């Protein structure tokens, strides 16, 4: 008997659906209510126009990607969605701006910077050399068998360590290497804890490490070298 066949009443059904949704990384609201950790907030560029509204739209887009990933829609639904997406593409295309003016990924006062490329990192505490926070990979980031895709994890580490490497007034650096060790399966739809920290800073070279945990279990670890850019270096 499957867990669903075992369900007896409406309360139990809604509990099962809620649990399934959590497992799938569905219906998880973006956490705009959590304040950005104080020293991490020093990176914030205040007053980004429409940033809250844009952030809410990105949160919807994140949920949407999770629903698209999880659904097996009928052909009418697929056709309707394709047409809607095409209409939105045509509406947005004339609004393209140069990179420096785009909002996607540039809203540093929002958790996740207003982008959907990597899951939202919620920084809860930070100092000059450390950041702590949480992340939940939605269904969109599924690799297989409930595990997060192996490529999504270094992307996430680059997001956290890249930002920490350039925090607290440090001049901009770029990732030279980023080594990831997959210690155990990283589960989709589960709140994970993150710690990123400086190991050393010598001349232009900044070595940082990070750890991703599910409860007490270490899911993945990373070490990155970030090299401070010389003036004029892209
Ligand atoms: C506007 C809003 C934006 C918001 C953003 C928010 C945050 C976003 C978060 C996302 C963030 C995302 C961030 C991203 O993803 S950045 C994107 C990914 N990274 C890149 O595209 C970088 C490409 N590479 C380069 O540009 C150059 O190679 C760099 C600049 C890295 C170094 O070239 P450069 O010519 O300048 O320097 P150098 O070659 O003399 O090297 C200098 C020193 O470093 C040592 N070295 C170099 N490489 C390695 C290596 N692989 N292993 C070990 N060591 C290495 C080297 O031996 C030397 O050491 P030493 O001999 O002096 O002892």
UniProtKB/TrEMBL annotation:
Give the enzyme's EC designation.
3.1.2.2
Enzyme class comes to hydrolase
UniProt KW Methyltransferase keyword: no
Q: What single Pfam family name could you report for this chain, choosing any that match?
A: 4HBT
Q: Which domain of life is it from?
A: Bacteria
Question: What are the entry keywords?
Answer: Apoptosis, Cell membrane, Cell projection, Cytoplasm, Fatty acid metabolism, Hydrolase, Lipid metabolism, Membrane, Transit peptide
Q: Which family does it belong to?
A: Belongs to the THEM4/THEM5 thioesterase family.
Protein name, per record: Acyl-coenzyme A thioesterase THEM4
* Originating species: Rhodococcus baikonurensis
């Amino acid at each position: 008997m499957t867990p669903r066949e075992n369900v007896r009443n409406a309360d139990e059904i809604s509990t099962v659906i809620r649990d399934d949704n959590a497992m799938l990384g569905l219906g998880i609201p973006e956490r705009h209510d959590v304040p950005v950790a104080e020293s991490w907030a020093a990176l914030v560029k205040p007053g980004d126009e429409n940033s809250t509204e844009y952030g809410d739209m990105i949160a919807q887009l994140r949920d949407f990607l999770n629903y698209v990933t999880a659904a097996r829609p009928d052909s009418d639904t697929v056709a309707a969605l394709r047409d809607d997406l095409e209409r939105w593409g045509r509406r947005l295309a004339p609004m393209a701006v140069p990179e420096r003016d785009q909002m996607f990924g540039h809203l540093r006062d929002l958790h996740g910077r207003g982008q959907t490329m990597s899951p939202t990192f919620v920084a809860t505490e930070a100092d000059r050399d450390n950041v702590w926070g949480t992340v939940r990979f939605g269904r969109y980031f599924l690799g297989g068998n409930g595990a997060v895709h192996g490529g999504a994890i270094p992307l996430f580490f680059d997001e956290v360590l890249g930002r920490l490497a350039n925090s607290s007034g440090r001049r901009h650096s770029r990732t030279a290497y980023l080594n990831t060790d997959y210690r155990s399966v990283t589960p989709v739809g589960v709140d994970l804890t993150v710690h990123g920290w400086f190991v050393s800073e010598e001349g232009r070279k900044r070595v940082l490490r990070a750890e991703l945990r599910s409860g007490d279990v270490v899911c993945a670890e990373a070490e990155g070298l970030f090299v401070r850019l010389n003036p004029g270096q892209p």
